[in-house]
Amino acid sequence: MAATKIKRIDPAKLSRARMQTGWSQERLASELQRAGVDSRTSVRTLQTYESTGRVPDPMVTILANVLDVPEQELLPDAKAPWRIPLMTYDPSWMPPAALLRADVGAVEFHFREKEIASLRQWCSTPQRTMAMLCVGPGGIGKTRLATEICRVMSQEESWRAGFLDYKACVLDLELWKDIFNDPSPLLLVMDYADHRSSIVLWLLQEAIKRNGRNNIRFLFLARKAGEWWERLKNSDLAREFLRGPALSRLNLPPIALSKEKREKSHAIAAKAFGFALSRPLSWAPPENLEDECFGRALLIHMHALASVEGVSLKGEDGLLDYVLGRERAYWEGRLTEASLPVSLLPALGQMMVIATLAGGIQDEEDGLTILSKLSFLKDRPHDVIHALNQILSDCYPCENWIGPILPDLLGERLIETHASDGAFTKAAFQLVRLLK
Amino acid sequence: MQAAKSAITTLNRLAHRRPENEKLVEQFLLEDIDSLAPLAIEVAIEDGDPVGLILATVLERHPNPRRALTLLSLIPDNTVALRQVGITVASQILAASVASVSLPKAIVADFRTTLAFRLAEAGRLVEARDEILKAISVYEDVCLEDFDKHGLNFAASQSILSGILQ
To answer: For B104-140, what is each residue's pLDDT tens digit?
Structure first.
């Protein structure tokens, strides 16, 4: 079976076009089937399109025809290569761990009033170009804070605001000149800035050079201000700017410091999870909430999730393993749905270790290559390999084929739990080396 | 190579949280140290410890002067995360150049200066001083023959010495 070529659309534009026709996702799915499209085009598939923007190439034309809009209307806008990554949790197609992801925001944004107020003030300061580096360990809430300030500035102050979409972003001088000289102010968040320092530098330079008078703000997110940051600050191209008052730094503190405040945060999360999972509220915060690990909002949320499900856990690993256990149960359900034996479960775990190590599997073909090389799946028929590949792509939709396990901390724990299997680890490392 | 770099980053974070996972970083690098070492250097700059120290250990155990020469050009002058890698590769290059019968002594002195600089950056001042004094003594000789060619490196070595002695 040949691998399908994937095209990128703007997910928000697809949702908008569908809603403008007054159609639900169910209706669009049935219209597509009526138009003679592959019967596999289900509501689930459409949800994936509307969340990731990843659509099989021929489907873009079909969608445009069925929705009666020009194809161009579904494609990303080159002049706005950013978006606010905030989705609504939907258990019909999202994996269980999505409940804990910053871009899903199942738990309402809370506390951090001081940070939001200071970010708003920073945005409105009458200085044309400013940048801020926000640092903190994984799971502390950097992405969520940045998402919230984007939402606030976009909805309440009519700014152009969002996270730079690295895949859609083209470093074209004329394009960015237009973007930066547009009269409306812009807040551009760059997540994982430590891994994108060349883009950071390029954009900063262009923003500094522009003529426009509007405010432009860069918010860089990173775990640490390590040597990448020092190198950036020493670069000839932006040294003056990055060493001057236009640059500030926010070392993001824990969401709550006191036990009482952490209990409140735990309660807010438990209520949200109870609602999302349609479970009666069951709230039992841990006694050791003052522990360092609960400085990270993610760990408080994980504990709240366990408490809603009536599970009592201790320690960071206990929490992470519990969330991974929920993920495995989800894979098991998907195997059963696909009439595949549950004995294949370890293969899905192994494949997700490789996908997480590699930062995702780029395309269907790569997925097939890796799965077929797993010794666990040796001699399995091709249709089984194809089915597993499809299951994981459905479970972890992303801009490419199979996304990594998120949040990062959870993905790291998944890898760690497989590390004791020396033979698999060796094979996994070799397979990662096969990927692009 | 993006997948390999992502793997090094993830494993480095795991090792940062728990030192017992350092062996995973080492194991991955050993898959193909020639092509993975430059990526590990990038990760060390972006994410910090412990990948730099692990890379240095792997390179020490598997010396290769040609590879060391390539890696040296990737290591920034002022670095904490890659200090040990800098010393390891500079030592390997110097050892190979000393062993080479055909290499001019001024070139060997250049490599010795590089090692002295890396040692001084790491605070190993006695070793740094010993190396730079050896280099200076060579430069003194060769400058008598051709100052235009070697004068600049001679000055640089003296500047490193004065930095060490301060």
So the answer is: 999 999 999 999 999 999 999 999 999 999 999 999 9
> Nearest by CB to A228, which of B6, B32, B46?
B46
pLDDT at A241 over 50: yes
Cβ–Cβ under 8 Å, residues A79 and A162:
no
- DSSP letter string, A368-395: HHHHHH-GGGTT--HHHHHHHHHHHHHH
Question: Is residue A91 less than 8 Å (CB to CB) from chain B?
Answer: no
- SS3 state at A236: coil
Q: How far apart are the first and last CA of chain B?
A: 43
Q: Are A95 and A327 in contact (CB under 8 A)?
A: yes
Among candidates A197, A358, A416 on the partner chain, residue whose Cβ is nearest the Cβ of B21: A416
Contact in structure between A263 and A305 (CB atoms under 8 Å): no
| Dist. CA A383–CA A338, nearest whole Å | 11
CB A122 within 8 Å of CB A248: yes
Q: Which residues of B117-137 are buried (b: 16+ CB within 10 A; e: fewer)?
A: bbbbbbebeeebbebbebbbe
Burial class (CB in 10 A: 0-12, 13-18, 19+), A396: buried
Length of chain B: 166
Asked if B28 lies within 8 A of A429 by C-beta distance, the reply is yes
Under 8 Å CB pairs connecting chains A and B tally to 79
B20 vs A contacts (CB less than 8 Å): none
Give the chain A residue whose CA is nearest to the CA of B43: A195
Residues A122-180: pLDDT tens digits?
999 999 999 999 999 999 999 999 999 999 999 999 999 999 999 888 999 999 999 99
Residue to mutate among B31, B42, B46, with most A CBs inside 10 A, is: B46
**Helices (H), ranges, chain B:** 2-17, 22-29, 33-47, 51-61, 65-72, 83-99, 105-121, 125-145, 147-165
Per the CB < 8 A criterion, the answer to whether B88 and B53 are in contact is no
CA contacts within 13 A on the Cβ side of A104? 20
Cα–Cα distance for residue pair A429/B24, rounded to 1 Å: 10
Contact B7 A357 (CB under 8 A): yes
Task: Tell me whether strands A247-251 and A186-190 are parallel, antiparallel or unpaired.
Answer: unpaired
Identify which of A246, A234, A161, A231 has the alpha carbon closest to the alpha carbon of residue A197. Answer: A231
pLDDT exceeds 60 at position B159: yes
Q: Verify cis geometry, omega within 30 degrees of 0, for the bond prior to A81.
A: no
Q: Would you state the pLDDT for residue B164?
A: 95
| DSSP 8-state symbol, B158 | H
Structure tokens at A232: 């950036």
CB contact under 8 Å between A429 and B27, yes or no, is yes
Calculate Rg over the CA atoms of chain B. 17
